[in-house]
Amino acid sequence: MPFKRIICGVLLAPLVSFAQMRVTEADGDTLPVARIIKQYFAGKGIAKLQNIVYRGDTQSIGLFQEPTGSVGITDGIVLSTGLAVHAAGPNSRTNAGANLEGFFFRDEYLITRGNMCDGVVLSFEFVPQYDSVVFDYVFGSEEYPEFVGKEFNDMFGFYIFPKVNASRMPTNLGCLPDKSGINVNNVNHKSNSRWFVRNDVHTAQAYDILEWDGYTKPLSAGMRVVPYKTYVLHMVVADLTDCEYDSGVLLRQRSFRSIPTKPKRVKPVLKRYYFNFGTNDAKLNEQENKRIKNLCDSIGKLNLDSVVVIGHTDSTGNEVRNRELSNLRAQAVAMALQPCTTAPVKHRGAGSSNPIAPNQKEKGKAANRRVELLFYRKPAWAD
């Protein structure tokens, strides 16, 4: 299928009040890479996640917490070209980095003329439940601003492709909404600055939080997929040419999710109720208010997306007045029901246009003088 872009648990310790980012690096025992991905990255709509493969130093991946919200993502996973803990502020150096040595590589998807060293290659298979997948991230680097305009910048890539029968080289989904690539040269204080946040001055909002000298605003990467087909997500973050200045990616916790781009219309549940109104009146009396209160107890237990109240009348009288009266009665019921649920309660009047019994006899007219409630439940992916 074509690689069309849509848009280019609890952590180990409880959240506490601190001014800096807190990073916990991966290890082989209490926090292995597989646990990080399964528990802290996979979100709703992912039916299966398996065959996790990681290349790189385990010190280059970890969990972070940043409860102040200064960076735009409060918790999740950090992938770094150096030590993951070096992402945490304050921004004490302009050239923070770690040469981890011995990890020189080439990745088949991250095409560049530069030599790669220090980095993370992470891939796994997944099965989406719906027709698209998406996740949220922030890219940051110590190469800001010194390496803006230089020939080589640290790079990263996100690639999603079918496990079998991939038709061509996948597109890098680590991009801006206009599909241009994200790197130090393309996103900075001069180019695409609306997506960039400077962090190299002490007045910057994340100066005490984050070590990186610059970073992007939160972005989303994703693409259309075929539900219940097996795909691979391949991520790369790499130093180019030099192995010193660190760059990295923050992945929002549990943001890797599958959602429908065109959700199927949820069929509502129809319930009919008969409320007694006075002749030519739309006011609920005390007895009817008690009935609605009992109804509230049931509605409050439902996970609803919306409720629609439709008022009906019999055919007696002028149709213009019937439609007006039915709308007023529906409005009265809707106003009484709204405190029962957080879902919006809408209303409309149908007059005598949709009878369910003949209007020739009083019994049929009584059946037609009704209020219908349509209950729209929330789809599972919206929970």
- The ordered H/E elements are EHEEEEEEEEEEEEEEHEHEHE
* Quaternary form: single chain
Largest sheet: 9 strands, antiparallel
Low-confidence stretches: 1-18
List the total number of helices: 4
What's the number of extended β-strand segments?
18
Going by helix content, strand content and strand pairing, the class is alpha+beta
Mean pLDDT rating? 85
CA gyration radius, whole angstroms: 29 Å
Overall 3D shape? elongated
Number of domains: 2
What percentage of residues falls in helices of 4 or more residues?
10-25%
Task: Estimate the strand proportion.
Answer: 25-35%
Distance separating the two termini: 29 Å
Description:
The structure is a single chain. The protein is elongated. Strands 1, 3, 4, 7, 9, 10, 11, 13 and 14 form a nine-stranded antiparallel sheet that branches. Strands 2, 5, 6, 8 and 12 form a five-stranded antiparallel sheet that branches. By secondary structure, it is an alpha+beta fold. It has two domains: 238 residues, no CATH class; 114 residues, OmpA-like domain (60s Ribosomal Protein L30, Chain: A), CATH 3.30.1330. Helix 3 links the parallel strand 16 and strand 17. The relative contact order is 0.16. The chain is built from four helices and 18 strands. Helices cover 13% and strands 30% of the residues.
